[in-house]
Amino acid sequence: MEIKSSELILNPDGSVYHLNIKPEDLAENIIFVGDQDRVERISKHFDSITFQTQKREFKSQTGYYKGKRFTVISTGIGPDNIDIVMNEIDALANIDFNTRHIKKEISTLNIVRIGTSGSLHKDIPVNSFLLSEYGIGMDNMLHSYLSEAVCDKILEEAFMEHTQWNPIMGRPYAVSCSKNLAAKLKSNNIFEGITATAGGFYGAQGRILRLPIQNHSLNTQLESFNFNNKRITNLEMETAAIYGMSKLLGHNAVSMNAIIANRANGTFSEDPYAAIDKLILYTLEKLSK
Ligand code: R1P
């Protein structure tokens, strides 16, 4: 069935609406970052850059690192942006923009987020690295889709019981990373755990400035949660949405986190850029193998 112009919006030059990318300019290996200024912190390591564009917060560069082709895309902040970026990169790979039909052969993309995040435990210090084995989304974005098949119901139920989850906040969703892609990225030097993804930065992550919040105990409840000896290690704003959309669309995804804040002891990295630069090089090296 032909996908109408109002549903898959293309720019006059044939690029996809928000990302401004044409199908031939998207690599199969994709790196997401939140901050648009982080795109060049990655591409400065490339052998060459063959394409670049920016619209709004979505800045993209495609190039080669040690002979392997990558596209780096900044997603901006939050799960709502992940809905846009995931749908548009999938359309670039799997919808024929000329006929507006889904391609017969569906391609799989490899997506790695290199993000910043806050640790919930004193023993996961600032400047350490963490691979998200699972994402628990507290943001509801995934519920627009028929997502049950990719979600871990047992983990979700345990999480809701432990946090005495208020239904007014919607239902949390839990999705795992791609085991194969994670195997490439693991090492003894990095922590692993469940990443909680929030739909906001302040109240949604238990920060109180002037407004009273729904759940004062959120961070201590997240910290004390244990599921089959896995703990919720950190809080950020994209991982669960990326995992959910990737699983639904048939792509591989892993989220790598530079821990720049420690919510348990109230510390913040003195040099967050050094931490993220180290994680960028670590990740590029692992992915280039
Ligand atoms: C909040 O400051 C932002 O920083 C974190 C959060 O997930 C959120 O996007 O990640 P990035 O540094 O990748 O944007």
Q: Can you list the strand order of the major beta sheet?
A: 7-12-10-8-13
The number of domains is: 1
Which stretches are low in confidence, meaning pLDDT under 50 for 5 or more residues running? none
Proportion of residues in extended strands: 25-35%
Head-to-tail CA distance between termini: 40 Å
Radius of gyration: 19 Å
GO cellular component, one term: cytosol
EC number: 2.4.2.3
Catalytic activity: uridine + phosphate = alpha-D-ribose 1-phosphate + uracil
GO molecular function: purine-nucleoside phosphorylase activity; uridine phosphorylase activity
Give an account of the 3D structure.
This protein is of the alpha/beta class and 289 residues long. It is built from 7 helices and 14 strands. Strands 7-12-10-8-13 form a 5-stranded mixed β-barrel, surrounded by 4 helices. A two-stranded antiparallel ribbon has the order 5-6. Bound molecules: 1-O-phosphono-alpha-D-ribofuranose. 1-O-phosphono-alpha-D-ribofuranose is lined by residues 33-35, 77, 115-116, 201, 236-238. This is Uridine phosphorylase.
List the helices and strands and how they pair.
Blueprint: E1 29-33, H1 38-43, E2 48-55, E3 58-65, E4 68-74, H2 79-94, E5 95-96, E6 101-102, E7 110-119, E8 129-137, H3 153-162, E9 173-176, H4 179-185, E10 191-197, H5 218-224, E11 226-227, E12 230-236, H6 239-249, E13 252-262, E14 267-268, H7 272-288
Parallel strand pairs: 1-4, 1-7, 7-13, 8-10, 10-12
Antiparallel strand pairs: 2-3, 3-4, 5-6, 7-12, 8-9, 8-13, 11-12, 13-14
Helix pairs in contact: 2-6
The chain binds 1-O-phosphono-alpha-D-ribofuranose.
Residues 33-35, 77, 115-116, 201, 236-238 line the site of 1-O-phosphono-alpha-D-ribofuranose.
